[in-house]
Structures are given as C-alpha cells and as structure tokens.
Amino acid sequence: MLRELVVLGTASAVPTRRRNHNGYLLRWDGEGFLFDPGEGTQRQMLHAGVSAHDITWICVTHFHGDHCLGVPGVVQRIARDRVGHQVQAAYPAAGQMYWERLRHASAFADTSVIKTRPVSGEVAHLPAGPVTLTARPLSHPVASYGYRVDEPAGRRMLPAELARHGVTGPMVGELQRNGTVTAPDGSTVHLADCSVPRPGQSAAFAMDTRLCDGVYALAEGVDLLVIESTFLSAEAALATEYGHLTAAQAGKAAAECGVRRLVLAHFSERYSADDEPRFLDEAGEAFGGEIVLARDLMRVPVPKRQS
Predict the structure, then answer these.
(1) pLDDT value at 167 more than 80
(2) Does 266 show up as a binding residue in the annotation?
(3) Is 66 labeled as catalytic in the residue annotation?
(4) Please, what is the average pLDDT of the chain?
(5) Residue 190 marked as a ligand binder
(6) Which segments constitute the Metallo-beta-lactamase domain (predicted)?
C-alpha cells in the first residue's frame, strides 16, 4: 500500500531556476492522481522516477497556463508509452474549450484511453477505484475547482475481543464480510462486538483561490492538505485581488479544519530561497501541526492512519 505525494513543480505563474511550474502526483493504492500538470511536467516525471503508467486521473483545477500547459505533453506520453488502462480527466466544465485545445494541441499518435469527466455545480462526486474524488468550486477570477480524495470508512478489529468471543482463523474474514458469524459455542457474534469504527484516510488539493467555503469543505479533517500559499502577508491585498492565498491564510484554514499534515506550494517568483522560512513561520502562527514547504521532486507521505 503506497500513499504519497510526489511533487513535480511548485512555482506559480512564472517558473524559476529552482521551481518548475505546478505538478503534483498523488499515489494512492494503485491510483495516480496527477493534479495541475504545468509546463515541463513530463520532464519532471522523469526526474521524479514516475511514468505515464502511474497516472489514472488528470485533475485540472483551472485553465491558467501554469496549471495546465503540461497537459499536451502528458497526453502524448500516455499515447507514446501505450498506457492500456483508462485515464480519467477532471476539469471545470466551463473550460471545455481550453481542454479540447490542450488535448489536441499537436499532431501525434492519439490514444483512446482518456475519458473526460468535466465538473460543475457546487459539488461533484467521482468514483475513483478504492476512493471517491470530490470536486468543489473555489474563488478565483476564472472557473476553478479543488479536489479531495476520500477512502471509505471501515472498522478496526480488536484481537482481544475476537479471542474472547472465540472468533479465529477464517471466521474473522466471514465476520468482516457478512457482519455476523456463528461462534463455536453457537452464539451469534456481530461485527460491532469485535471492532471499532476506523475513519478512512483523506487528502485535499486547493490551488489558486481566496479563502472561501470550498476551501474549508475540501480541507475538513483531511490527513494531507496541499494548498497554495502564493504570497506572504505583506502582499495580502494583492493576494485577494488576484484570487490567491497567503501562507498565513493557508495555516488558518488548516487549523480551523483540523488538518494533520499541511503542504504549502505554488510560490510567487518574487520570493527567494531566503524567504522560505517566512512562509513556514506565517503558516505556523495559526497552525500547530506539521507543515511541509514543498520543493520540486520531494515526496511527502500521507500520514499514517490514526488508531
């Protein structure tokens, strides 16, 4: 079981010598959610050691160039590498024209494995293998959606209670499948007798947005939140004008939503490496949990399941 974020790029509108345009691959038990493939994503995938075969979803938040200009290269790589499984593409339905332009941006041997899933409205739930992918609108000058991945809730078996009820071996699997099992003494043992609820794990991705209801709905209680922090607080007015967040606002949202691990990304080119500690400090003023300042090619594991 592998659940990790592979960071492919962390710049905002303009790439820098140290940061490529956006690109984030969330690997989750065989599913691969590629969020916002910006320009250069195909090459960054090579550096990160991931391939087109690892992608099962392409999720575009909106159609500003730094979040989508890598789509043609990724599509062509999917075709060139003869990816055989279905790759679903989620993006704002309002940007259908831009998706079509990117999807067919040049002459190349095409592929039939890409299935489009345009999203609209206040919430869209998309089945994605073992998880559900949810899209919610964000606040940006163009139509923009954030995404959330949720594992279904389950139950954690209690060995001591299983032993006390005489449930052993294959009987445990039968109890999990059917909800009841007949114990050796003839009594009926219910799943609730030998287990406790186990919340499913979750991750959320919010790019290019002001603070809004969508941000909070996506981030509520997630194990891993990847969120833009384009500006520092000194540029808060500029952030609001252009539809972005500051690091302090990202930390505030994470704190109010009970996030476990916060990943800051999408940094303006105006800041240098010397400014990076300031992003951590400003986010940390409100959020006391773990904060990761994303860098290109780093891998961030989804926090281990809470017992």
Answers:
(1) yes
(2) yes
(3) yes
(4) 96
(5) no
(6) 18-147, 196-267
Q: Which band of pLDDT confidence, cut at 50, 70 and 90, is reported for residue 197?
A: confident
Question: pLDDT tens digits, residue range 22-63?
Answer: 999 999 999 999 999 999 999 999 999 999 999 999 999 999
Rounded distance between C-alpha atoms, residue 67 and residue 61, angstroms: 7
Q: What is the pLDDT of residues 96-132, one digit of tens each?
A: 999 999 999 999 889 999 999 999 999 999 999 999 9
Catalytic residue among 29, 54, 66, 296: 66
Integer angstrom CA distances of residue 74 from 46, 69, 231, 283: 12, 10, 29, 33
Its sign, for the CA torsion 276, 149, 214, 101, is positive
| Residues in Cβ contact with 258 at an 8 Å cutoff, skipping those fewer than 6 apart | 220, 221
Q: Any known ligand binding at 125?
A: no
Contacts of 48 (CB under 8 A, 6+ apart): 6, 7, 8, 25, 297
Domains of the chain: 3-153+199-301 (3.60.15.10), 155-196 (no CATH)
